[in-house]
């Protein structure tokens, strides 16, 4: 009987110092709760904001499903779930680019801007995956290419076309755009840190600080996916109350 139980254990044991396992578990729960929150609040907003809230919910929902698998994968193998991690990102990060486009649509944003951001984000992630999973010897080089794509995104939203559109829109849209810009500049910068902690290279000192790649990624995801969604939620709340007051 004993052995049957250990063989078919449904819930993995978790060591008290398993920070990776812990952050996967909490991350999973947080993403689920955030998705319920965004989906259920959708109908409180004016029609034109509903798609933005829907996308916020999709981002955390897609992450919740991947966290479910990553939590399991880690508990079973005690190994980074690199594949699931990047599948999650390659779906959710482009959706964050869509979010930028959706809020700037009121100022006349074109689809080409959205596709440009999506393209750069995919380049950033695919090259990151190569460095982490395929050619770890050249992780620094893949990380560098990924970093260039990242800075191209930062440039477009901070100083380029997206910034111009946000300024044309003004008001709440401009404020929300600015906050999202900070998320990308500071919040997204958490990820290259995780990458440096988890891949070999001249920067290996980062790993010596005792930082773990998956813990860093998990914290980054919680901040960025849920935080990003809340900024959009806030914008939709303010914009909807203004129109109903008018
Ligand atoms: C929800 C997931 C998000 C917002 C993921 C963002 C990921 C990045 C900004 C990753 C960036 C990377 C670099 C800039 C260089 C090293 C490789 C990456 C992929 C970790």
Automatic annotation (TrEMBL):
Q: Indicate how the chain sits in the lipid bilayer.
A: Multi-pass membrane protein
Q: Which residues cross the membrane?
A: 20-40, 52-69, 89-107, 114-134, 140-159, 180-203
**A cellular component term, taken from the record's GO annotations:** membrane
Q: Electron transport as a keyword?
A: no
Question: What modifications does the entry list under PTM / processing?
Answer: Contains one covalently linked retinal chromophore.
GO biological process assignments: phototransduction
Residue list for modification N6-(retinylidene)lysine: 225
Q: Which UniProt keywords apply?
A: Chromophore, Membrane, Photoreceptor protein, Receptor, Retinal protein, Sensory transduction, Transmembrane, Transmembrane helix
| Entries under Pfam families matching the protein | Bac_rhodopsin
Keyword match Protein biosynthesis: no
The region annotated as signal peptide is none
InterPro entries linked to this entry:
Arc/bac/fun_rhodopsins (IPR001425), Proteorhodopsin (IPR017402)
Where is this chain primarily localised? membrane
Molecular-function annotations in GO: light-activated monoatomic ion channel activity; photoreceptor activity
Task: State the compartments where it is located.
Answer: Membrane
Q: Which PANTHER family match?
A: BACTERIORHODOPSIN _OPSIN, NOPA (EUROFUNG), PTHR28286
Q: Which family does it belong to?
A: Belongs to the archaeal/bacterial/fungal opsin family.
Protein name (Swiss-Prot/TrEMBL): Bacteriorhodopsin
Species: Robiginitalea myxolifaciens
